Amino acid sequence: MRRKPEEFHDGAQDGLTPLRPLDIKEIQDFDELLAGYSLTAFGGRSLGEAAEVLQAMVTDPEVTIVGTFSGAMTVAKMGLLICDMIDRGWLQVIISTGALMAHGLIEAVGQVHYKHNPGRSDEELYRLGYNRVYDTLEMESNLDYAEAVFKTVLNRMDKEQTLCSTVICRELGKYLAEVTDQPGILRNAYLKGVPVFIPAFTDSELGLDVANWMIQKACQEGKTIPEAFTTLSLNFNPFLDLGLYGQEIFKAGKLGIFTIGGGVPRNWAQQVGPFFDILQNRLGIELPFVRFHYGVRICPEPVHWGGLSGCTYREGVSWGKFVPASEGGRFAEVLCDATIAWPILIKAVAQRLVKRQQVR
Hints:
The protein is about 50% helix and about 15% strand. It has helices spanning about 30-35, 40-60, 80-85, 100-110, 120-130, 140-155, 165-180, 185-190, 205-220, 225-230, 240-250, 265-270, 270-285, 315-320, 340-355, and strands at about 65-70, 95, 115, 130-135, 135-140, 160-165, 195, 235, 255-260, 290-300, 330-335.
C-alpha cells in the first residue's frame, strides 16, 4: 500500500531523541566527548551509550559487578585499567584468561614487553627467545622469571588444602602485596578483596608453571617422566571455582557485567543464571532468580562470525542470562578494538562521576 503524506510522522511527536552535530570546539574533556558521541551515530553512538550504562551500573549501590577479560590486554598495556576499576570499586569479581593474568604478573614483577620489529622473522624470534603477540614481544626470559616467582608462592602454600584458580590468584596477589608497592591486577585485587577466577586455568603459562612444579617434585621422588605426567602433588578442583563464584552471586543484589573480548571468561560468568535455574528445577532447591541487569561489552567481533565473543545481550536473554530491556535491563555493546575504546570509556565515566559527585 502506498504511503500517504498526510500520515507521515515527525520524530518529535513520537518522542524520538534528536541527534546533534559533534562540535569538538565545545568539548573540554572525555566526559563531554562521549556525551556528544551518544547523540551521533555508528560506533561513536555505541561508545557514548556505553558510558551512560557504565555510569548507571557503577553508581547503583545494589549492583555486584563482574568483570570478564580476554585477549592480550596486559601485553597491550591495558592492565592498569583493570587496576583502576578495582581501586574505584567498579569490579567486585574478575574472571579472566590465564594468559592475561600471566602477562600481568610479568608486568607486576617489573619485567618489560617490547615493540615487534617486522623486519625480523618469526623463526628468528623463536631462536632469540622472543614470543610474538601480534605487534608486541614477550621475552621467554620474562616467563622464566615469573615462573620463579610463582614457584616461591607454590612452595609456601598449604599442600593439603584443595586448590582452585581463585585460591592461587589470591596467594599470588598476597605475595605481590608483600614484595612491591607497584600496581598489578592480582595485587590490587587481593588488597581490595576482589576474587580472580581463571576458568581455563591449565590453558595458560600459569597452568604450565603449576604442571612444571608438580613434575619436578615427582622427578625428585624418582618417578620417570611418563609417570610424572600423571602424578599430582596438588589437589586442584575447578568445581571449587564454580562454587565460590556461585557464593559471590548468591549474596549479590543486582548483577552487572563488564566484558572485554569474550571467550571462556564471558561464557563462564554468564552461565551462572542457567546454573541457578538448573539447580532449582532439577534439585528442587529454592535459589535467587539470577540475571544480569546491566552489561557493557567492548569487542570487535560481530555476531555473524558465530562465536560467543560476538553474541548479543539480546540473544543471552533467551538463555536466562540477562534481564530483558522491557523489564529494565540496560546494555551497551561497542564493536571496537578495546585498546581504543576502553581507556576513553573509563576516563569519561570517571570524569562524569566527579562532576556529579557520584564517586563510588
